Write a sequence for this structure.
């Protein structure tokens, strides 16, 4: 019976990995000038990042933000520790704007200030090499 449980456990784990695999985000790309690009789609009340926000390094970033709603929204990004404003702007429906900011190892946080969303906190940004 325990052999059957082991096989069943392996089967369940395999199916879980296969189902969740397509949801893994891409790695951000960095161009020849050292600028890293991250795409954020904003929906009603939340953001969806196309690239992973884990293991980021301090440096220059371009956040490509697209409004996927049918109403005015906004984008606000701050230094995580000091709350210094790095950028803030509105976005019309289906509009895309680029925010070019310098991220330090303090990390950063972002949100929509118009259609209030909770802050998305990104800590653990590594020091630049």
């Amino acid at each position: 019976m325990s052999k059957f449980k082991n096989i069943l456990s392996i089967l369940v784990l395999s199916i879980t990995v296969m189902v969740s695999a397509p949801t893994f985000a891409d790695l951000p790309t960095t161009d020849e000038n050292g600028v890293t690009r991250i795409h954020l789609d904003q929906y009603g009340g939340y953001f969806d990042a196309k690239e992973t926000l884990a293991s980021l390094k301090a440096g220059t970033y371009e956040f490509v933000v697209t409004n996927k709603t049918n109403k005015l929204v906004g984008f606000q990004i701050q230094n995580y520790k000091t709350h210094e404003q790095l950028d803030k702007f509105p976005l019309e429906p289906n509009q895309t704007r680029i925010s070019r900011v310098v991220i330090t190892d303090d990390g950063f946080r972002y949100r929509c200030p118009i259609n209030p969303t909770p802050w998305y906190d990104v800590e653990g940004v590594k020091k630049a090499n």
